[in-house]
Amino acid sequence: MNKKYYLLLLLIFSAFVLSAQSGKQKKADRLFNDFAYTKAIEAYKDLLERDYNTSYNTLKIAESYYMLRDPENAVIYYRDAVEQPDVSPEAYYQYAQMLRGVRDYDLSREWLKKYQEEGKNPKQASELLSEDEIATFEGFESFKLQPASFNSVYSDFGTFENQGVIYFTSARGEADTKTKIYDWTGEPFLDIYETTYEGGEVKPVEGKVNSPRHEGPVTLSEDGNTMYFTRNNYLDNRNGKKDDEGVNHLKIYKAEKSGGEWGNITELPFSSDSYSVGHPSLSNDGKTLYFASEAPGGLGGSDIYKVSVENGIFGTPENLGSTVNSPGNEVFPFIDQKGDLYFSSDGHKGYGLLDIFVVTAEAPQKLQNLGEAVNSSMDDFAFFRNSGDNSRGFISSNRTGGQGNDDIYEMSILAPLVLKGQVTDSINGKPIASATLRLLGEDGQQIAFLETDTLGNFQTPITRNKNFPLETKHIKYINKSESISTSNMDDRTELIHNIELSPVRDVEYLAEINKIYFDFDKSNIRPDAANELDKLVDLMTNEYPELVIEIGSHTDKRGSVEYNRKLAERRAQSTFDYLVQNGIAEDRIVTFKGYGEEQPEIDCKDCNEEQHQLNRRSIFKVVKME
């Protein structure tokens, strides 16, 4: 073939290939812009395999996974995309968020800092970069999460219970509407279903709430006859107006129950064609409705608002301010019977993507994270707590190990566990007042410091399913160290742990007596010595009736050794006689011995009178206590 014809054909073929690739690029972008992210990913990957527009398509795949809340796949593509010279700083923020989703917090902070330096909204990263510790809510002493029995292989989330009926949102596609596939997720559109706690039938709610568009989540009035629910802009079997970018936004609708079915659907007046309003939660008295909205003038992408409800008339929505709202997104509010507000946020510092937070009625200016186990590295949202039974609740999450994309988890909220007990004397069983107890964590740090009351009792809240070192002390007793376990106590509210302390083997210490002193060259019991011996009598009679002792008596160094030995024996005899005369059995004093000057208290050559006095004494030793 003529060379120039060959080159011409090659150029024509190349142009054809480029034209085909360009067409595929337009299709992929169209899918992305139409929110068909699952299909868009496949189209972009096909272009990547052909090495076409590599940098751009890598970023678009990353963004698609970001929109699908799939951090494991997103970080793979963001890793390359953020290194491109012309990438938007928004990619830094999105990459940082996805890194939180895979628990790579250190690398996430690096990209948040870069976004803070170059992004359009640096405040969006400020709180996530805060060095402050995450304030963790202690309102749930402990709890257990388990997947709800009514989950499906599709998305299930957003529970609400009323009069024993559980309402939730699901993409299982079983409602009495024409099943359509939502291109964003590749699953059917969302509808509202109902069931009961104990494995009841799952069925779509009756009436006109479910439509060909998305519905859910819901909230109900206390009497169960009024429902507020989220739905795409759709009413009277017609799609509502889209915004300038062709988006059909979410709105809140009201439904009324009649004859077991939901009807009389009306749109709430503060909904809009221009931005989304959804996720309603009604206060216990029915007078305040909380919701999430992207209304202009907020603090971030989506904020939490409240609005008054009076005889079906709605007031002016009020933004809840910076304690609740951040430059990020706040969604899924829930107000419980105490007035505590739970919601999810990706703008406040937490453990993953969306975390669940609470602002309590008691501390309205304090934001608290519900902590790990409730919050994972993924999206955790749609908190609900049963107003009639505070031991039950639900959250929703797309954490790993679930059955579908989003799953519902039932939360068994356990009553606080209280450690309580009595500290007693191991010999006589009597309570020990003012004993101190130190409860330690597994890291050895002190958790609680307690002191027993006059009856030797103590108590303190304690966390379940852990081991705790415990130290008990009293000045008259031998210290005791042990470990207690709170494992397997879900059905208990009290852990009774009684403690016995062994008394120190020191009579003078136990009876709080001073030394029994004698005058120079005398063996009679002085009045001050009698007072101290009376304390010993009381100890041996009333506290330790089995106590057996020995007596040892001593002299100073004046006089001969033999004289002092005999003087000490007379002092020991006097001490023995006083105890026996005051009711102590002779066999409880096994020996009384005089040691003379052999064992001085003060060993001195030229002793002064005070030192001589300290050496003229009787002392006691414990032989047996039991």
TrEMBL record:
Signal sequence bounds: 1-20
Chain spans, region Disordered: 203-223
Keyword line: Cell outer membrane, Membrane, Signal
A Pfam family recorded for this sequence: OmpA
Gene3D superfamilies: Carboxypeptidase-like, regulatory domain, OmpA-like domain, Tetratricopeptide repeat domain, TolB, C-terminal domain
TM stretches of this protein: none
Name this polypeptide is given: OmpA family protein
